[in-house]
Amino acid sequence: MLQRAAWKASFAYRGNTANMIIGVAAVQGVQLLFIGVLLDRFGAIAGWSTPEIALLYGMRLTAHGVCTTCFGQHAAVSIMLREGYYDRFLLRPVNPFVQVLTARFNLGTLGDLGLGLTILIVAAQVAPVRWTPVSVLFLTAAMIGGGLVEAGVQIALSGLSFRLPMLSAKASVNTMLTDFGTYPMPVFGRAGAYALTFVLPLAFVAYLPCTVLLGRTGELFVPVWLAYGAPLAGPALLYAGYRFFAYQSRHYVSTGN
Amino acid sequence: MRVAVVMLGAKSVLIYRSDVFIGVIGLALRVVLVYLVWRALYDTETSVSGVSLNDAVGYAILGAIFNVTFQPWHFSSLMSRVYDGNVVFDLIRPVGLLTLSLGQQLGATLAGFPRALIGIAVGLTIQAVPPPAGVVTTLAFVVSSLLGMAVALLCNLLVSLTAFWTTEIYGAIMVYHMAAAFCSGALIPLWFMPDALGAVLRYLPFSAQVFTPLSIYFDPSPGPHTLAAIGVQVAWVVLLAYLSRLVWKRALRRVVINGG
After folding, report:
1. What count of other Cβ atoms lies within 10 Å of the Cβ of residue B4?
2. Lowest-pLDDT range, A125-129, A171-175, B137-141, B232-236?
3. Residue B241 has pLDDT above 70, yes or no
4. Can you tell me the distance from the alpha carbon of A168 to that of A175, in angstroms, rounded to the nearest whole number?
5. pLDDT of B73-92, one tens digit each?
6. Contact B174 A176 (CB under 8 A)
7. B14 part of contact set with chain A, CB < 8 Å
8. CA nearest B45 in A: which residue?
9. Which pLDDT value is given to residue A74?
10. Contact B66, B186 (CB under 8 A)
11. H-helix segments, A106-229
């Protein structure tokens, strides 16, 4: 119900809606252009052809869209804390975390999801994947799971802002996910791939499930079952992120307004 | 007093210590990741489109550093000041609004310099960025970088000024931010762009922000063409400064104050 109210509030201004959706689409569009120019010059990235990279890109962006449409408001936590809005949440008989997520709906996030799904659908037709009901189901689960992985990480980071005043740090993790989530992990070498799997769980968002769909699990640095089980990492990380947030929120000190 | 504005702009960034700290680590990580990606892209090739692996990697790293330093997400408080009406207080200050806004931006950008230097140091240490070719190149690069910063600040100011016409401009800012990152050659050198696209982008002010200083850095033989490139940057600075004056004069007439 709270989420619906937030939606309504944001949609009330149609001009802004279009404006924000275009803005977000531009952010991702440039990333697409970037990859496009690279593929145009280099032909393949770490042995992955253009359709394969397109599928990976579509999966990453769709997962990102799932994260931002459902959990996008985590980004506002640091501002809410600084400006004292969080005080109000504590007065109301609803979990403050739920109130944070439903405070406002950022329409731009629909741009993420829309563009992600479009690219995913186009890429799914050109990529060398034999689509069966099982693989489609796996893809769907992976997209939701990937969104939850990202949400878990972001929510945990938001939790940190109870302790440290942070404004741009989360944004930089965010762009990191956007900028480097679209490469096959072997690009980063063994150490880099491990770091982006276990320290910052970027590989779980799209790369691991994508290798399963493309039959590329042979190149993995990690056990194959981890790739098949990647969608399950989402709920687990989201829960962990939420627990961390809730734990950190006990350190909340009002700014006093 | 103008110096004070710049100092305050710098302070508004540096006061968030944890932000600064994470920003530095983030940039260092980015340098390493960009390095790995471009190495992987070249794979076994030694030269693509006439650009060697070393130059491409070095360029990509410096480009990433220029991108975070010159093209930040929040480049001016002007928009929110217009949005919530506080701009009226800025208008009655003894320092002109343009000076005020530019000063703040300049301060915030200068505050990013230590981070940028750390990024460059990391790049030089892991030998991903080749050292500059000589004294002349270094000097030209520094001058051109500062001019690039001036072009970036003026472009940002122009975008901020549109707040006087439209209330919600965050969408427009995102479009501008990404367009600038791409068109300035901060993400990919213009050398790699398809020929027609690359040619068009060279005539836009974005390339004067990043591509010009970086191509000077990687130019093995600086000469009259280096001076010409710097001359074009100066021309952009003059033109953009004039343009923002013009836009500002018209914007002033647009200010409507609600209530009192």
Report:
1. 11
2. A171-175
3. yes
4. 11
5. 665 667 666 766 677 777 77
6. no
7. no
8. A42
9. 67
10. yes
11. 108-126, 133-160, 169-180, 189-194, 202-205, 207-214, 224-228
Task: Evaluate if residue B234 carries a pLDDT over 90.
Answer: yes
Q: Cβ of B188 and A38 within 8 Å?
A: yes
Using CB atoms within 10 Å of the CB of residue B157, give its burial: 0 to 12 exposed, 13 to 18 middle, 19+ buried.
buried
In this predicted structure, the answer to whether residue A23 has a pLDDT above a threshold of 60 is yes
Residue B260 has pLDDT above 50, yes or no: no
Residue A195 at interface with chain B, using a CB cutoff of 8 Å: no
- Tell me, yes or no, if B22 comes closer than 8 A to chain A by beta carbon: yes
Do A23 and B37 lie within an 8 Å CB cutoff? no
B19 touches chain A (CB under 8 A): yes
Residues 6+ positions from A105 with CB-CB distance below 8 Å? A3, A6, A7, A9, A10, A72, A73
Q: Among A47-56, A70-79, A212-221, B222-231, which stretch is predicted with the lowest mean pLDDT?
A: A70-79
Q: Please check whether residue B200 touches A, CB under 8 A.
A: no
CA neighbor of B171 nearest in space, from A53, A117, A13, A5: A13
Q: What ipTM describes this predicted complex?
A: 0.73
Cα distance from A134 to chain B (closest Cα, Å)? 33
pLDDT at residue A79 is higher than 60: yes
Please tell me the number of Cα atoms within 13 Å of B145 on its side-chain side: 20
Per-residue HEC secondary structure of chain B comes to: CHHHHHHHHHHHHHCCHHHHHHHHHHHHHHHHHHHHHHHHHHCCCCEECCEEHHHHHHHHHHHHHHHHHHCCCCCCCHHHHHHHCCHHHHHCCCCCHHHHHHHHHHHHHHHCHHHHHHHHHHHHHCCCCCCCCCHHHHHHHHHHHHHHHHHHHHHHHHHHHHHHCCCCCHHHHHHHHHHHHHHCCCCCCHHHCCHHHHHHHHCCHHHHHCHHHHHHHCCCCCCHHHHHHHHHHHHHHHHHHHHHHHHHHHHHHHCCCCCC
| Shortest Cα distance, chain A CAs vs residue B218, angstroms | 20
pLDDT in tens, A141-168: 999 998 889 888 888 888 777 776 665 6
pLDDT band of residue A12 (cuts 50, 70, 90) is low
